[in-house]
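I have been asked to look over a protein record a colleague put together. The record follows directly below this note.
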Amino acid sequence: MRVKDPAMLRRKRQNRRFSQTELGYLVRKTQQTISLLESGRMKTLSEELAIAIAARLDCDWEDLFLLEEGEAMPVVRSDSRTVSEKVAS
């Protein structure tokens, strides 16, 4: 995955009143990682990190990140059971 618009990522973080250090702590990464993402110097990131950042910024991951060609779309589950398991229950 990659950041759609690094400046938008920075604005979303600032609107939530998080410092880079605070957001990094919440997603278990360093302030430097957040800085690299916001400056556009980090070209790719994991789906896990993209989803964690979007969740902390209270937005959909699609608002901030682009799925690279050939990547599988991330699946976000509310619990450990899959959709088919819920239907069967």
